[in-house]
Fold these 4 entries.
Entry 1:
Amino acid sequence: MDTDVQKYSGNESRNVDYSNSDISNKSFWNCSFANCDFSDADLSGTSFESCAFTECNISNARIDNAKLMNVIFDTCKLLGMKFHKCSQMSFEVHMKGCHLALCNFSDLQMKKTEMTNCSIDECYFQNTFLVESKFTGSCFKSTLFHNCDLQKANFVDATGYDIDPMVNKIRKAKFSAPEALNLLNCFQIDII
């Protein structure tokens, strides 16, 4: 292990502007960030374990090889995030009430992930393992699910999703009517 890595434990940051900052190759454990701006920051190689972000702007931040372990995002703005470039070995996030746009979650193992009551616009889930994940109350717009494992996922009260059951595994997933009719879009049929 690299002994030169700066480590932070139990720190609380409020209203701090980290935008365009180099916060790469650091280690944060049990830290909280509230109303902080991380837009365009470099978080490459940084480890966040058991951390919480509340009402933060984390747009276009660089997160190559970042470790996100048991990280909570509450009412955050996450735009242009390339989550697929994070460390695959330790990826566990929970999001509630967040606005996600143009984010890429492809090829990630995200079992039991929570994205509840979120606005999810033009995001990408390709070859993503989402078994038992929870998307309740979320609103999707132009979001792609392709070759994903969504078995036992919960989409109750979610809207706007377009999931093709021919190319995604949806066994025992939960959907509510009338939005569940979106699952028939791939068949190009008219329901009257």
Note: DSSP finds no helices and 17 strands in the chain.
Entry 2:
Amino acid sequence: MSGCGAAKVRQCIEQSGRFSKVEWEAPAIVLDVSPFGESDALAVVLTEAHGRHRGLVRGGSGRRGGAVWQQGNILAVRWLARLADQLGAFTAELAHPTAALALEDPLRLAVLVAACAVAAGALPEREPHPRAFHALMRLIARLPDTEAALTELVRWEVALLAELGYGLDLSRCAVTGAAEGLAFVSPKSGRAVTAKGAEGWEHRLLRLPPFLLNPEAPAQAADWRDGLKLTGHFLARDAFGSHHQPLPAARISLYDRIAALAAANSPTPPHSANPSREP
């Protein structure tokens, strides 16, 4: 953004001190940060009560602020503006350096960045979604175990779809009505299908990884691949597609990484779903 534009935003915020102010304080997860001017930044955070929220961070891209304002970090945030509908400004203290800890493992970092990018793009601004907030907190808590974090990421995306009104129906088969033996999901309706009900249609359906039905089920690369493909399809079509936006590059990159890992572990190539028809 031009220096003139940045100066106007700063001027508006500085002038806010002359009027009544609107402010709040809350724990927050940093979803996105972009440079603004020479040393400031525009940040997007997620809180329990205030949802996805944007604000200006003075010094946010400088040496000290840059270490705090990183994707995935958990902060104690204060937001201040003259009016509720203004951009406002953030100040914060670091509560948990998630980003720095994730740097130890490239795959772990990819999971964190993908989750933050999906949340930043899919959740509506300033609309509370406490379940999505707490689920993302649980995902961050599981990051030290990369395999558990991958499983949690897919579960979080399923929960996010439901939170946004695009929930999958994994309760029973769309064809037979059976609640056991569910193995696929229709790419059109989002309803589960058993292996028996899918006979002859397997190549047109999305595989349903067992860990989405059974919390105790083990998971490996092929399961994470199938899970990410499943949630990615509905995120791209509904959560992002409804706003004419593509799935975030970080999320696509994570899927490609897991698909390559699954291919390296198995000689059997993954099937491709064709959403043109369904049972």
Note: The first strand starts at residue 22 and ends at 36.
Entry 3:
Amino acid sequence: MRAHNVLSVCFSKQELMGNEENEPKLFSLTEAERARREVEPLLIEAMEVRRKVADLDEKLSAVANRILIMGGITIDYESVARLRFDHNRLVAQIKDALERIQATGCVVKDLDMGLVDFPAILKNEEVYLCWRLGEDRIRFYHRQDEGFAGRKPIDPDDTGPKQTVQ
């Protein structure tokens, strides 16, 4: 199993994207900032654990290759069982952190980049307020059919008291 596929192994697309039957929470810019501060430590935790899982994936893959080439006679089954146990425990930690983030209404778009979107209404259009780990605040948005590459700066006129981001 390749390390970058851990999310697809752990979660179905519906689990990652949320249940489409439920209306997504719409954030104001102020609410999104509050949620960003809340989810940032969870995102950091998930990213750090994700790196550990990638290391374990490589070790488990090496064991699988050794078994394929040499058979199972030379394998230390106890150490492999510990690797598998650690792997499963860490994957559960990632899933827990992502579920806690998604419970706020945020959408984790890319765990490797630390990219989180916050559904919002801007100029009467459903958009995502877009934040990436390391940015000091939410300063960008993109339409829902665009991704990170389509990010645009939030127009200051849209965040003022007369026409707020809803």
Note: The chain is about 45% helix and 15% strand.
Entry 4:
Amino acid sequence: MKRLLLFIPVFLIGFAAKSQIALQGNDTIFTNGPASEFEIVAYSNIVNNSANSANLRWVKLQTAMPTGWLSTVCDINACYPDNTDSADFTLGARATGNIDGHFYPNNVIGNGTLRVRVYEVGNPSNQVIVTFIGSTNAASVAALVKPSLKLYPVPAVDYINVELNYQAENGQIEIFNMIGKKMAEFPLSGNKSRIPVGQLPKGQYLMRIESSKGLTTKSFIKQ
């Protein structure tokens, strides 16, 4: 009887400690642009709401592209080749990481669908499914502008330059470490900013920019 009584609390603690992942935003993400553009990107974020890191895996469930299109998935580690159907990554406790759908239209007008399942390795019921839908038209590049974020130099040492392809109004820059702790925040106005990062410990970070244009994230390394 004593063994049973001791086992029950341990089991409950272990159960409570399981990770829970969720999408930050909608489960269907739309993006569009001119067919002449090299790529169009649909941005999405995965949140680990637990106090423990989670070993996650994404798997392509559906890829439906017009003839001539390519597509790929990007996570916090990398952007993968078109023929990569699955990859693993780790998301820290209380951390947010990106899962993005990239479409390469190759001057072809049409619509593409990329459906991805993200789940916890060893606990597949803990999952989210996100659908990326990309569409192109014959408009000029100047007519349609998709939000994008460029960071340099990477790895960063004392500072990092932030460059957007749009004018941010009342923007906010937040920097998180890989366990989800906010390490710094700065106001953002315009499309360029130079952010001091010399005070940050060495490691990988996630930059989150929110403005009137929406939410954009990108990871970088601090040396």
Note: Confidence is low (pLDDT under 50) at residues 1-17, 140-144.
